[in-house]
Amino acid sequence: MSVTLTQLLAMAGGVVLAGVVAHGAWQARKAGPKRALPPLEEPHFDAPPFAGGESATEAAAVVTPDSLDVTMPAVARPLRRPSNRIDALIDAIATITVEQPVAGELALQHQPGSRRAGTKPFQIEGLNAETGDWELPTPGQRYGEFQAGLKMANRSGALNEIEYSEFVQKVQGFADGIGGFVQFPDMLDVVARARELDQFAASHDAQLALLLRARGAAWTPGFVQQAAARHGFVAGALPGRLVLPSAEEGAPPVLTLQFDAQAALADNPEAQSLRELTLSLDVPQTPAEQEPFAIWQESARALARDLEAEVCDDRGQALGLHAFAAIDVELKKLYEALAGRDLAAGSPAARRLFS
């Protein structure tokens, strides 16, 4: 359900192809892959009074219909805060009520073994009786209410009836285990909402990828890592994957730079030769105000300069300034459409939907 770089270019009118001039003499002199250089060695205060001088007891006075002043004790109640993990915009939500607070240990004991229904993840949260926060059940805490949220769409498609039925079965088992009563939204309504959400997401998703192709000598994995590190890239969780981290703690990376995983896993990676890298931008994952497209474009140019590489689109055709400008125009429209649906790029809901 994504718009590729090729499709964005087609919407904007295409790009002008440019030929690649080979430097034969230089190639002959630098026949082997470029290698990384060896690392260099480095040498008590009082609470304010109530307005008007009232005491706490006076402020709690309540006037009855008989006009009698009755002093009521102040009762501290936790503020009920919205969830950061479950959102009615993209989740089907089941509510679970209990007669008395449930210990976190009991809730964990009855959690489903898998929090997935087909290809759709779901989460079960408890309303902390002390703090009023929705949170994942934790030992030592007590919960006065629970809710389960099932994602209605992701990049695997829309939620279907079979997946929803699996969700119902798993959440019902959890509710029975903690002695709760669960209410589910209507399946036909949920599935219809899921299809509509998926249609919107399918036409407003964008994962941009360009290729960096060696003009002359190939590179070793170490040489690529060394060059990328100069521009802020660090090793990712997967072999052959480097990432440009977001400035926001815990956020997805802004860019990814990938090469052949087999080369990274080889017994002697520096004996491997690389001639092509992929630089990717997952548009919905980063806020527009951070200008990720400009970062993507500038990173491509900087890496191409340092690696002596050609910048190409996903079909191998050279990318120039006009192509980048055309993509930028289309992305601005995309950002506006996402924000208009309360799914602004980089928001928690957008990150979860486009995953």
Topology:
Blueprint lengths: L4 H8 L11 H6 L26 H4 L1 E3 L5 E3 L19 E13 H6 L6 E2 L2 E9 L5 E2 L6 E10 L1 E2 L2 E2 L2 H18 L2 E3 L3 H17 L3 E8 L6 H9 L4 E2 L5 E4 L10 E4 L2 H5 L10 E7 L9 H16 L1 E4 L8 H20 L7 H6 L2
Antiparallel strand pairs: 1-2, 3-7, 3-10, 4-5, 5-6, 5-7, 8-9, 11-15, 11-16, 12-13, 13-14, 14-15
Descriptive tags:
single chain, 355 residues, alpha+beta, six-stranded antiparallel sheet, 16 strands, elongated
Class based on secondary structure composition and strand pairing: alpha+beta
Shape: elongated
Strand content: 15-25%
Largest sheet: 6 strands, antiparallel
Question: How would you concisely characterize the structure shown here?
Answer:
With 355 residues, the protein is α+β, with helices and mostly antiparallel strands. The protein is built from eleven helices and 16 strands.
